[in-house]
Design a protein that fits this description.
alpha/beta; 12 helices; D-Maltodextrin-Binding Protein, domain 2
Amino acid sequence: MTIARRTFLAGGISLTTAMVARAQAAYPDKPIRLVVPFPPGGVTDVVARMMAQRLAADLGQPVIVENKAGAAGVIGSEFVAKAPADGYTLLFTTPNHTINAAFRATMPYDTEKDLQPVSIAGQVPMLLVSHPSAPFTTFQGFIDYARKNPGKLNSSSAGNGTLPHIVMELLLLKTGIQVTNVPYRGAAPALADLVAGQVQLKFDTYATAGQFVADRKLNALAITSLTRSRLLPDVPTVAETVPGFEGYLWMGMVAPAGTPKAAIDRLSAAAKRAVQSPELRERFDKEGIDPVGNTPDEFRAQVAREIAQWRDLAKATKITVD
């Protein structure tokens, strides 16, 4: 090979390497779509829009939130799982991500193989609330009554397979009590019927149930964080009675599998900066949301743990979700 040809080839390789490096460094160079697999207006949608605003400022490109609701998050998740793995179509999801993988007999995508975790923005512990007419006002009182009266209590949920339903089933399994799940078409009617006294119990969040607790229209029995909430310091954790018990409504970003690592890393770093910003921390604080901003590896490990936990629960309870 002549010196001139070797020089040409070497120059070509250097040019290609430089072009790839510039392409990676340029991410993102167009708007990013952030898919929320639930209807607008809920806490996940609200947090997604907060994050989109901060991410856009950090990344220098618009981040457009798009709601693709249906099938407890499956429709929006499938859309992202099958989107180009280029970092421009992302999913903003919740524990439905892991619950669907464990409780649904069939799925149009593989949760762990087809989707790449990026970062959890924030998480909200579940709050167990009861109607004042219920024959108990404390968590231990609820457990004692339920043991003596199996199946007499009703708990509302946003539907079969939703986080409040599954967290309640996990609590029932660990305590050996029986409570009947009453599924609704959404969280709002489930909470409305609890406030009206049509059911006795519900797992909710401080953001939506807190005012009813403050107005004494509901009693706060326990919270599912491992430590007590500064917003409700007198409310015990479930873990104080059931060691190790926890359950969070987390909200995080996921990308199609195969998305370049450079894009994943940049998105994860931007998400961490977003939740650490004074503006977002203040807004999270008002809603009782704990900022997280973890790494892709930490998020991936959490997804694996949850899927394993929910599969064990599905096997023990024989619950299926269509």
